Amino acid sequence: MPLTAENAAQQIQDRLKDVQRLIHQIDEERRRSEGNINSLTRAQQSNLPPSKLKSLYKSCLQDAVVEEATIRNALEKIQEIRNIRNERRIQARNAGNKEAIRRGALMKMVQISAQTLPLFVSKPGEKVPPLCGAIPAESNYIARVGDNVAALVKGVEDEENWILAEVVQFLQRQNKYDVIDIDEEQKDRHVLSKRKVIPLPLMRANPDTDGHALFPKDTIVMALYPQTTCFYKAIIHKLPQSATEDYEVLFEDSSYTNGYAEPLPVAQRYVIAYKPTKKSGSSGGGSSSVSSA
């Protein structure tokens, strides 16, 4: 059943109230845990018996577990809000209500989408799921309607390029995607075989807990060139050092003596495994020297 504007607004308001409540709860739990940590610190300095210290350690650990669960709950509510808004956006598009977005605003939306991508923080022994950081999708995975993907499309003189696109639908019988270029100046629709569509990460990998889910230094990748909607061949120069940092990549550029331009930041969401095209051979998405146009 389609989600009406009224229902969507009500659902969002309900979840915003939940988020507000959880934020207050997190604040209370943090203050309580700080009290227990201070007690533990004083106890360590007082040379209390191991049994007493053990009890305080357990209290601090339990505080951390409760606080983590509350934070994860709040993040789930935020993601639910994003899903509701995305569903309404898709419904509006299908109904023919298309809002023109200026290029500057589009680039800002692309950036914000990467910054607000959910962060996966694994629990001890937990495996990093597909589409988190550099972990690819499983072979039978089908991207959802509204998801952003990298799509290999034909451009000028039939040259193939990887562009940022949005899934309109998956044609099950043909095993093909129907996608739309997110660039408002183009808005071209493309029906592409599954092998010409790469799902983008749905979560960021946390360097502190899951560094192995990031592309290693010197890995050849495809990355979205800043202020464009095209992916180009690049090399990982520096990995994110924190959950808020981007990769630094070196884009292929024949105008430089070593064949690569100076490092540029690219968010995890827009760095994917390298896949050459037929026309460009080893150059992936094409030469990045023209991508700033």
From TrEMBL:
Keywords: Coiled coil, Nucleus, Transcription, Transcription regulation. CDD domains: Tudor_SGF29_rpt1, Tudor_SGF29_rpt2. The keyword Zinc does not apply. It comes from Glossina austeni (Savannah tsetse fly). Its main location: nucleus. PANTHER family: SAGA-ASSOCIATED FACTOR 29 (PTHR21539:SF0). GO terms for cellular component: ATAC complex; nucleus; SAGA complex. Residues 139-280 form the SGF29 C-terminal domain. It is found in: Nucleus. The keyword Nucleus applies. Gene3D superfamilies: 2.30.30.140. This is SGF29 C-terminal domain-containing protein.
